[in-house]
Structures are given as structure tokens and as C-alpha cells.
Amino acid sequence: MGITDRKEREKEELKETILKAAKTLFLEKGVEKTSMRNIADRIEYSPGIIYHYFKDKNEIFHALHQEGFKALGEKMEILSVIRDPLERLKVMGKIYVKFAMENPDMYDLMFIKEAPLCHVFDSEKEEWIEGGGAFNSLRMTIEESLAQGYFPGHESESLAYMVWSVVHGLVSLHIRKRCEVIDLTRRENIVDEGLDAFFKLLG
Amino acid sequence: MGITDRKEREKEELKETILKAAKTLFLEKGVEKTSMRNIADRIEYSPGIIYHYFKDKNEIFHALHQEGFKALGEKMEILSVIRDPLERLKVMGKIYVKFAMENPDMYDLMFIKEAPLCHVFDSEKEEWIEGGGAFNSLRMTIEESLAQGYFPGHESESLAYMVWSVVHGLVSLHIRKRCEVIDLTRRENIVDEGLDAFFKLLG
DNA sequence: TAGAATATTAAACAGTGTTTAATTAATTTT
DNA sequence: AAAATTAATTAAACACTGTTTAATATTCTA
Questions:
Q1: Which of A160, A173, B47, B203 could potentially form a cystine with A139 if both were Cys, beta carbons 3.0 to 4.6 Å apart?
Q2: Which residues from A are below 8 Å from B165, CB to CB?
């Protein structure tokens, strides 16, 4: 046996090839401006073949979406060695912002683009799996901070959402080119400086 | 005379009609999913006519974009009666968030959507006119706050960008449906609660 | 009323995502 | 090994998209 396994593997291979080509093009020219024919051209197959491996364009998008979360999750792994929850929260923010600035198109894919496709699989549960996990670890860090006396008078859920909003706001305004209100001389550092200002506020 | 004026007015009228139809459709089904033929159908004209009044689809988008900033600007007018700059900053945030939540599609148009069209007119200056004015009044309020001793150790530009990021983050995560990580029971109020948490942090 | 200018349209172009039926290639069965 | 079956792949079509063109209808001017 193993024959059907090999067949399976070979099928996976073309699927990987499609995904890789799609990723390159998506991050190069954007999702909307990448056509199925573009992807097909790049892998030197006919457009139709893509539909044997993916239901539609959205499913390709979704696959890359998950890839992005895996990559971000891996970068977050080092957090486990940081004992102080406030310190951990800050490093978390730094990593998040760094990821977004280094992979703006992937970040766009993950957090900015319209997302009628996240609950493709569990549409009944009304939940967003990848994001839910990431948000949970943020909330837990904040709960730990509260337990240690940081942020008196605050409450974890709203605080967590607010913290996430700060980092998301910082990077998404930049990615979607709303930073042009800032002096050219300061524009390239404004995201990091904004993050520092927030940390200063946190204490 | 006045004849050419009337002609001018009549021309403006159809332009207004197109704009109104486009606005309805854009806010109803989104910009991308509204076609020129959709707009033409709605006003009972042929698609081609639109190109006699607008260069292309982007120019329609841009016109609505400006409309949105005018509306937001008007809502901000009451700020002038608030003396205390910190209080003014908070009300500013409240108005901003309220506007975004009441006009999510317009907000999307103004602050989230890809914007290769903002510097359509002054591409050389690399500036974003409408946004620049709004950001300036935010920065001035913060400068006033700094002068009165609020936010010691902070600096206006980065602080202003951070404050803007908070409100933008709060509403844009909600508009782009990333709030599904939040408990359903709290989801509808999380934006306001996040804003309150930020104000609490400001002092 | 004839001629010029303008407003409006129908038709076409090149592109899109997706589906279909036909074709080629590989595998299994006889 | 040859025939039958199954899977992989394609070419062609469908109904759309934004935009341009040349032709038509309308209005204004002289």
C-alpha cells in the first residue's frame, strides 16, 4: 500500500503550488487585483484546475489567512518566558506591531480586509477561531495583570479589547495610508512612537 | 444671461442624482459590489452617461469621501464651547466613535478602504487634505492639554496619533467584524466600554 | 429653419470568477 | 497486454465587471 498515500501527497503538492503562487500574487498586487487566471498563468496550468483543489477564490484567501495566524502565533511563543504580566503585555504589543509592519499585506489579509469568510466552517457558532485563540491569550495576560494590582478599577474584557484596538489602530492607519497627516520626517517612526506613548500611559 | 447658469444647474442636477444613487448603493452593498451598470439602472440612464459627469468610479468614491468628512466636521463643531482640553478630547472621541458606529459604511469609506485616491488632486504634496485638517484639531487639543499639565512626559504628535489609533482601532475592528472574539452578550457594547477604559487610563 | 453643439445611448473591448462538457492521462479490471 | 474505468486537465462558454467608441437623439444658436 502507500500508493493511495503517494497519490494523496501528489495532490497536496499541486495544492501547495497553487497556494504558493496565490500568496505571492496576493501579497504582490493585492487579493482583489489578483485573478484566477493570473494564478493559473503563474503555475502554468489552466484556470479551471484551481477549482479542483479550492472551492473558490475565498477558500484560497482563507487558507493563507490561517497561515498568517500560524506565523504570528509562532512569534508569540517567546512570551512564555516573561514572568511579569505587564512586561509580557508590552512585549506582546511590540511583537504584534513588528509583525504587522514587516508583513503589511499579510496583516491586511488577517485583520483589515472584509471577512465574510472567517466563519466559513463554523457559521453556526458565530465565532472566529484563529482570532479567538489569540485574543484569549491577551485577555489572560491582562487578567493576570489585574490580579497583581495593575490597572486598578479596570475590567479584563474591555481593557483587552482596548489594548488590541490601540495596536490595531496604530498599524492599520499606517497600512491603509492614513499616516499622511503626519510630518514626513516623523512618518516612518510614528507607529513605534505611538506604541511607546501608550506604554508610557500604561505605567 | 442666466441661461448658461441654468444649464450649469441642470448639469449639476444629474450629477447630484448620480451621486445620490451611488451613495445609496455603495452604503447598501459596498463599493466593490456596486457596478456602474447598477448605478445607471437605478437612475434609469445608460451606463455611459456617468462618464460625462465623473472621470471614473474612483471619482464618485472620492466625492462621497469628502461628503463624509463634511458631515463629521459638522458634528465636531460643538467642541468649541468646551473649555477644558481634556474634556474636549474625550467628547471628541465620543463623537468620533458615535459617528463611526452610526455610519459604519461611510466610516469604512473614509478611514478603512484602500485609498490610492486621496491625493488625487495634490499628488505632489503627498498630503491628505480632509484628514489633515481633522488631525490638526486633535493635535491642537492635545497640545493645549500638555500646556495645562496633562500627560506629563508626553509629546503631542505621537500622543495624537496614538489617541486617534485607539478610536480608529475600536471602531474598525468592529466594522470589519473582528469582534466575534468577544462574548455575544457584551459584543454590542464593547466599543463604548473600550473607549471608557481608555478614558479611565487617561485620568 | 439650417447648422453647430451637447446630451445620451448602444455596442464593443478586454477583463473578471465560475461552470460545463470534452479531452487527455493514469489506473484498474478483464 | 488490451479494454474499461476513473481521475486529471483543459478549452470554451456564461454572466458579469469598468471603460471607451462611434453613432444617435436632443437642444441651442445663428
A1: A160
A2: 165-166, 168-170, 173, 194
